[in-house]
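REQUEST FORM: STRUCTURE PREDICTION
Request ID: SP-0412
Submitted by: Lab K.M.
Chain count: 1
Length (residues): 290
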Amino acid sequence: MKFQPDCVSCLFEQLKRSLISCKSGITTEEILHHQREVMKRLIDLPFNQFRHPIVGKVVYGLVNEILNDPDPFKKAKIEFQNIGRKLYPKLKEMVKDSNNPLLKACIFSIMGNAIDLAVPAVIDIENDIQQITEEDLLINDFIEFEKDLNEAETILIVGDNTGEIFFDKVLVEEILKIYPNKKIFFSVRTAPIINDATMEDAIFTGLDKICGVIESAPYPGMILEKSTPEFIDRFNTSDLIIMKGQGNFETSYDLKPKGLIYFFLKAKCPIIQKILNIPIGGLVLKKKRN
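STATUS: Completed
RESULT:
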């Protein structure tokens, strides 16, 4: 998915929110100065060739420079991981007691995508998990997913955010409970970017104990050509790929790998709302169709 006009204003808003949350006492003048610097860096970029996460890395790279910190959202990430760890036993219990444990695990994995610092939304996920039902999946290709999962031998889950990956762990464990011989790989970013999950976060979650964990690239989305050789190989050879989150959706919607792709995400902006024809906040389990 190519960069869209609405993405420009969104990036400036993300920069403002990031600076306010990470730099105590920052002034309006300082924010305007840094927004002007972003303008300078973006002005000559060929937007028609770029996808949103590539440009997003420019903005968040500037945040790192301003704060002189390679991981300025570390504190928030720890809080999100602790939320995920706290909810994990409850999620496991609710999946176990469900009439359709695999479907419930998928819904929880999608719900976890609400944990995102890049969007201005209030997160009350502890309350939400008590009320969620299958009807909340506004795009629901679960029947096809279950069939394709049964036939797949190798599965790649392209992860998104910290905290969220505890919800993904529940899904991985449920898949392995049903299909103990499936080979599952879970990807994380190669370096901190916003609150996206890294290898450190995956180890904290314990994902490395139950499936293969690999690194992709330091972008807030899946940029295949800039990813590690291991990730490229897994992406091109896996039978089934689960793309978590909006950034991964934006950067893989037009790709055609060997395997089948499913998108697990929460719609968070007007562009995705328009593409998927659902309201913002809607939950999505969607099969990619050529």
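NOTES: The radius of gyration is 18 Å.
Reviewed by: T.R.
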